Amino acid sequence: MLEQLLALKRRRESRQRQQLAAGNQRYERLQNSLHALMEERKQLHISWREVGLQSKGKLARERLHEVQRELESHFQRDRALDDEMVQIHQECEQWQREKAVLQQAIQRSRVEQEKLIYVLEEGQDAYS
Fold first, then answer.
1. Mind listing the pLDDT tens digit for each residue in 6-59?
2. What domains appear along the chain, each with residue ranges and CATH number?
3. Which tens digit of pLDDT belongs to each residue from 93-107?
4. Rounded to 10 degrees, what is the CA torsion of 84, 87, 92, 93?
5. Cα separation of 4 and 11, whole Å?
6. What span, in angstroms and rounded, lies between the C-alpha atoms of 64 and 70?
């Protein structure tokens, strides 16, 4: 009976470790996405400044409207990138909390397994 309980606890720990590994992989993908978004935002800001620099001085009405559309487009994309980055940060923070809970569960499982192993060994020694 105790052997079955030990086997059950080992399977549970194995599943938790698999969850931890899968979560860590997802976290890495999120971090890579975050870095890509940051780079895209940096390039957007460079482009934004270039549009501003090219539009110095007097502009014809048509060119002014074109520059305004470009700047508005840059602004909208910047807001979208910012929103995506905030969402990724939140997902990363959520994973960190879940990871801590999983690690605690794995640790508890290891302690419980050690106790069961000790009880099993002591039980065998008593019958020897």
1. 999 999 999 999 999 999 999 999 999 999 999 999 999 999 999 888 877 777
2. 2-127 (1.10.287.1700)
3. 999 999 999 999 999
4. 150
5. 11
6. 10
